[in-house]
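User: Can you model how S-adenosyl-L-homocysteine sits in this protein?
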Amino acid sequence: MTRRRWIAEHWDEATATLQGAQAEHMARVLRAQPGMEADVVVSGRVFHAEVAAVRLGREASEVRLNLLAELEADPALPVTLVMAVYKFDRMEWVLEKATELGVAEIVPVIARRTEKHLAEAAEKRAERWRRIVHEAAKQSRRSDVPLIHDPGPLIGRVKAEAIRTRIVLAEQEQTTTLRALVEEAAEAASEEMPTLEIAIGPEGGWAPAEEALFDANGWKAASLGPRILRAETAAIAALAVVASWLD
Ligand code: SAH
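Assistant: Here's the modeled complex, given as C-alpha cells:
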C-alpha cells in the first residue's frame, strides 16, 4: 500500500516541519514518536523521512522530521484549467476532483456570464480554494499541490502569450473533439509531454464575444460530444480525456 503523504510547511536541507492540522493528526491521532517513518512532500519532492521530534501544544503543535531519501515522484498532468467562476459549491467540487485527476494549475477567470456577486467575492475565496486543493492533494497522495491563480478577467488570460496548446471547450463546436486535439498536441511534442491549457465556460456558457476573442487569439475550440454538460462535468470529462492519453 502506498503510504500517506504529509506536506511540509517548512523545511531546510535535512529536515521538514509539519504544523497545524497535519501536526495535530500525526501527534494525537497517530501518536507519532521519534523514529516513526513517514513520507513527506517538500516543495514538490517526496522524501522518505523519520520523525525527529513531536511537540504537542495547546495552541500549536509541531512535528519535525529528518529527511532520509528522496522518492521518485509522479508528475502532475501538464494541464492548466482556465475555469470561469460560477457557483462556488460546484466550482469547489471541481477543484477537488481536478486535483485528484492530476491538474497542474487552475486559473479562475471572470467571464461575461459569471454572476456579479460571485465575481466580486472570488478574490477573497481564493485562499479557501488553495486549502481545498491542498487537502485534495494530500488525500490523493499527490507529491505536488496544484497552483491556484488569483482570479482575474478572462481577457487577460486569453491574450497571454503561451507556448502551450490552448483549447476552449465549447458545446457549439461540432467537428473537432478534445481527444483529436490532445492527440495532435502529443504528436507535435514527440518525446516530451505536451502542455495544454483548457478553458471551460460558466453555467450559462461563453458569450459570443468571448468565443470570438478566443478565436482571434489562436485558441482551438473543442467538443466533448453531442450533449451539453454542466461546467463541472465538462471539467472532469476533459481531464479524463487528457489523462487517458498522457498518463
Ligand atoms: N450554454 C449552455 C451551457 C454551458 S455548459 C446552455 O445551453 O445552458 C458550461 C461549459 O461547459 C461550456 O461553456 C463549455 O465550456 C463546457 N461544455 C459543456 N458541454 C460541452 C460539450 N458538449 N462540449 C464541449 N464543451 C462543453
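A couple of observations from the model: The longest strand covers residues 45-55. Residues 169-171, 200-201, 204-206, 223-225, 227-229, 231, 234 surround S-adenosyl-L-homocysteine (CB under 6 Å).
User: Helpful, thanks.
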